[in-house]
Amino acid sequence: MPAMKWVPEMPDAAGAGGEVDARRRAVADAFAAGGPLSAAVAGFSPRSAQQEMALAVFDAIATRSTLVAEAGTGTGKTMAYLVPALLAGGKVLVCAGTKTLQDQIFGIVLVVVLLLVVAALGIPGPFPRMSAGMSTCMAGNI
Predict the structure, then answer these.
(1) Distance of CA 137 to CAs 91, 100, 112, Å?
(2) What angle do helix axes 77-88 and 48-62 make, rounded to 10 degrees?
(3) CA 126: distance to chain centroid?
(4) b/e string for 72-84 if b means 16 or more Cβ within 10 A?
(5) Whose CA is closest to 130, among 33, 108, 140?
(6) Which residues, other chains included, contact 102 with Cβ-Cβ below 8 Å and sequence gap of 6+?
(7) What CA–CA distances, in Å, run from 141 to 32, 36, 70, 87, 96?
(8) Cα 9 to Cα 87: distance, rounded to the nearest angstrom
(9) DSSP string, the chain
(10) pLDDT in the model for residue 104
(11) Contact at 8 Å (CB) between 44 and 120?
């Protein structure tokens, strides 16, 4: 994967096509065989649905649009939305529907993403603030 200049926030997609294109390629490469995720996460295997979702998330961030995505069990949804968000340099709010899923995301996946994947992708700190619990979810009852 070619080295790219890190910018704290996603540049305006209309005015910075080269930078946005480079970041989109980095998202695709991250989920490819032999990419940073397979190097950083033991047992990682590329899944086309995960890569497609990650690119859709990145495109929504780059164009500042809304994306509603649904994917089956085993797709790798958490990594598919966190990795492109980290590469885009934006903020992410994640609300889980159950305490079990919240614990999975907060306790396992975010540790993997922040400690292994961020280093593998070459994203510099500082790392995001995290909090967990129903009382910290801004969405409330949706």
Answers:
(1) 15, 15, 22
(2) 40
(3) 16
(4) eeebbbbbbbbbb
(5) 108
(6) 96, 132, 133
(7) 37, 37, 20, 30, 11
(8) 9
(9) -------SSPPPTTT-HHHHHHHHHHHHHHTSTTSHHHHHSTT----HHHHHHHHHHHHHHHTT--------TTS-HHHHHHHHHHHHT-------SSHHHHHIIIIIIHHIIIIIIHHHHT--SPPPP---SGGG-TT---
(10) 77
(11) no
What pLDDT tens digit does each residue of the chain (142 aa) get? Answer: 444 333 445 555 555 568 889 989 999 999 999 988 888 778 889 999 999 999 999 999 888 888 888 888 888 888 898 888 888 876 667 777 787 887 777 776 666 666 666 666 676 655 555 556 555 554 443 3
Read off the tokens for 23.
């970041």
- The token pair at 119 is 């280093």
